[in-house]
Amino acid sequence: MLTVTTVNVNGLRAAAKKGFLPWLAETDADVICLQEVRAEPDQLPAGAREPDGWHTVHAPAAAKGRAGVSLYTRREPERVQVGFGSAEFDISGRYVEADLPGVTVASLYLPSGDVGTDRQDEKERFMAEFLPYLAALRERAAASGREVLVCGDWNIAHQEADLKNWKANQKKAGFLPEERAWLSRVLDEHDGGYTDVIRTLHPETEGPYSWWSYRGRAFDNDAGWRIDYHMATPGLATRAVKGFVERAASYDTRWSDHAPVTVAYEL
After folding, report:
1. 258 assigned to active site
2. Which helix (H) or strand (E) holds 96?
3. What is the CATH number of domain 2-265?
4. According to its UniProt record, which residues of this chain constitute the active site (predicted)?
């Protein structure tokens, strides 16, 4: 079995103080993909920077206090790559991948965007560059008999079932028609060629949501968004035996506004 967890930690230093470290000590995951770490490695507590029993790769953003992705693996990676060959985004702390036996696992933090601002333009530029890379990565892996798993905060809810209040969010970043169409291309067998593993495992489910605003009673009412994905090449996706969101028991026990999304793959 290969168990992989992805979670946006909303600042790893803060999460470490709120409960991330006890969660890390108890998890059965073999690989953990983190997003929005928002710290240089030397700013992290030792238990988060180099936890016992884990090999860690941290890819902070050049802009201090922003973005940042990390990978924790039980096995030492055969190869590590930060970025995807983008002149604009390789130093932005948004992508890191590692080769493990038979599979390449990546942690992605896609820009969130904001309609009518430069942030949305940035998101669109990222998507335009990233999709060809995803397709090429899948093709290279297939040629060498490997699978690919790109986990992370994709900041797009793909379908109406992926967010509670979809009608009110149709003109907002994260659920724009053009963003959803782009994610459809990621999943199209003639384009990106990836599979949304959680949706495949839970085809008729509303959600399961992985992010809830801190505002109001979104968490208590389960008024969330499903924006944290396991996107796998089809061969790996067929080996997923269970997938679930590790939703906190209560609002006050959360250590992020996102919850870990975990999938077990039978290799």
Report:
1. yes
2. strand 95-100
3. 3.60.10.10
4. 109, 153, 258
